[in-house]
Amino acid sequence: MSFPKAKLQRFNEVQGCTPSPADYNVSLKNHAGLATIPKSERFTDLRSPASSDHSFVSNGHAPSFKTPNPPRKQKVGAPNSNRKTKPVDLFAITDDAEALKEKIVECNNKDLFIQELTEHVEELKQDLNDLQSVISKLTKRNSSLELNVEKLSDDHSKTLTELTKKRELEVVLVKKKALEVSGKVDEVKNKFVALKEESVEELSNLLKCIGVLQNLLDLLRKNTQMIIAEQTEELILKNKQIYEFEKSISQLKALHLQEIQTLESDMLKTVSNMHNIIDNEKENGEKRVNEVTNAKEQEIGTLKEKFDKERLKLIEDYEMKIQQMKENFKEATILTEIQTREKCETIESSWKAKVEEVQLEADAILKECQAIAEYNIIQSEIEKNKVSYELTEEKKKVEELRAENLEMKSSCAVAETKRKEIETQLSNVIIELNTIREELGKEITECKENVRAATKDKNLYELTVQKTHKTVEALKRRLMKSDQDVEQLKAELEATEESKLEVEGKCNQLMHELEIVTDLCDIIEEQNKMTVDLAEQKVLQLKEELCNKIDDFKSKSKAEIKLKEDELNKVKKDLSEARELLHDQNILNCKAQEWISLSQDEIKQCEVLEKKLLASEDSRHNLLKENSKLKTVIELMQASENDLLKQISDLKNCEPEPVPLPGTDDDLKEKYGKLLEQLESVEKDNAQLRMQVAEQNALIGPFRDNLKSYEMEYNILMNEKEHAEKEAHEMGLKYVEILGHQNLKQKIKHLVDLKKKNAILTEEKQKLEVKLRNQARTIENLKSQVSTPKKSSKKDKENLDHSSGRIESPGPLRDRN
């Protein structure tokens, strides 16, 4: 095949379309896009170097090379044999050495550049391998994390089941203990109610006895008050009578003194007149005396005789009257004494009978009270011993309950510590997940940076490939004119095309792998985020559920502990109330004994007072007798004084010359002195009686105060009793409200409610278990999805028409690769 002579084109003449390799200084800032060669230029046939300045790419088949256009013929005389045998001179003679040197330098530079490209491709392969190893490590780590999460969830479910079982067992034990404690409390309550009823009966009996004693005391008090009132009235009347009598005596004394003074004055006047008359008439009378003496002596003798007779008569009459008065007085005194004795005897007999009856009743009541008190004391001591024994047993039970309560508290504390440990483990797991998330984020950022660096290197590689295309095209243009160079160029072009195709395929594979890796990274990031979020949500849900369950268990345990503490406190209160009631009962028994002793003392004092009253009545009767005697004596004295006054007036009227009566004044003075002595004695007796009355009032005063204080204490005790009964009734109502199952129907209702609550709790538990199973399934599905990610089955549409066969043509580029 003959080729026409082509136009020679020297290297010096060719404008540098490709700079020297030393001038390659690609700016890294301007990032080129992806190297996508258009299909129209890639799969077109090779053009002639004159018609096309663009690069050509083989489609995998044998390269079809078109001959260039035949150039014009230069000289006619030139032989054709030389053209056929001799090759066309590519270089001028002068420029051979320089051209060869430049070509050698270019070839060396190209070899170096190709080596750099191969090294860069190997580095990219290593980076891809590193990325694949990192992805495998991440998948392994993700699988290990999922296994850890599964283990944690299994441990968590196991711990939850164990805790629920333990709590259920503890709740069952606590319920059993609560039922036992409630039974014991019911027994204690029944015993307490029985003791309370017995104590109330005993208190009612004691109060009845006390009421009877108080009624008796009130009767005695009323009787004594009546007697004292009567005596006080009688004393007041006597005092009034004595005061009137004293007034009358003082008036009589005054009148008597006035009369005596008038009599004395009259006597003195008469005496003075008589002396004057006698003195005046002595002289006249001496004469007449001698005359009249004889006559007068006779008359005086007759008058003396008459006077003696009359005096004797008067004395006899007065003596008879006095004797009659004495007899009458004696008879009256005897009658009054007999009447008073009869009255006193009747009163004494009636009072003695009453006192004996009261004493008999009091003795019987005292005996009954003593017997009842002794029986109550014995029963109270027996019950006290029983209650003390029961109290010791209940103290032991309370101590056992306290120990159980402490055990419950310790178990609660252990559960709280376990909960805290679980919370710490959950927090540690969350922290580990966050750290793993941060590490994955860092690794993903590193992978992204590596991908960015790979894209940068790819862009640089594309630029270098483009520049190699340009250099190859320039070389093709230069070497197209020679046959050998054309063959070499063909081979080199084929090799370069093959290498180009390989590099493009590798680039496409790398891009596809990069896309897959980026998609996988995005999917892994999303899946990691989803898994982390789901794990966090599940952990938070589990934490909330655990916290809620623990709070529920805490609240239930606290409520049960509070109920038990309240029940224990109520039992303690009941025991303390029982103790207080026993103590109050003992105090009441002691007070009853004291009251009985006081009533006995008061009865004795009343007997003493009755004796004193009887003695005072006797003395009063004696005083009345003496007073009546004095009255009679005073009346007699008044009568005698009146008689004497009458006699004096008669004598004055009868006799012109008064004759003094011998012995009348002395008798009167003696009688008057006696009367004064009697008055003084009567006043002394009255003062003594007043002193006795004051002493009796002083003796009765503290008894009155004691009675008032007893009444006050009785009212206070009755108020306390009513208050205690109200409190006991309220406590009983509260116990009924709290326990709520006194009757069988209430017990059945309570059991039905408990069964309903238990069924509701079991349903909730089953629902929670179903939720946990569903969550475990979702976790397993997510783990399976994370462990086996879907690979994208995308194929490069650009390489669909390329055949995998390669033409193993020798060439420098092929050998280099």
List keywords for this structure.
817 residues; mainly alpha; disordered C terminus
Commentary on this structure:
The protein has 817 residues and is mostly helical. The protein has a domain at 743-776. It is 85% helix and 0% strand. It contains 7 helices and no strands. Helix 3 (96-479) packs across helix 5. The longest helix has 384 residues, at 96-479. The chain is rod-shaped, with a radius of gyration of 77 Å. It starts with 38 loop residues before the first helix and ends with a helix. Residues 26-68, 73-94, 655-663 and 790-817 have low confidence and may be disordered. Keywords: Coiled coil, Cytoplasm, Cytoskeleton.
Amino-to-carboxy terminus distance: 33 Å
> How many beta-strand runs?
0
Estimate what percentage of residues fall within beta strands.
under 5%
Topology pattern, helix = H, strand = E: HHHHHHH
Shape: rod-shaped
Return residue spans where pLDDT drops below 50 for at least 5 consecutive residues.
26-68, 73-94, 655-663, 790-817
- Which radius of gyration do the C-alpha atoms yield? 77 Å
**Pairing-aware structural class of the strands and helices?**
mainly alpha
Major sheet summary line? none
Mean pLDDT: 68
Q: What's the tally of helices? A: 7
Query: How much helical structure, as a percent, in the residues?
Result: over 70%
Subcellular location: Cytoplasm, Cytoskeleton, Spindle
Biased composition (Polar residues): 49-58, 779-790
Pfam families: HMMR_C
Biased composition (Basic and acidic residues): 795-805
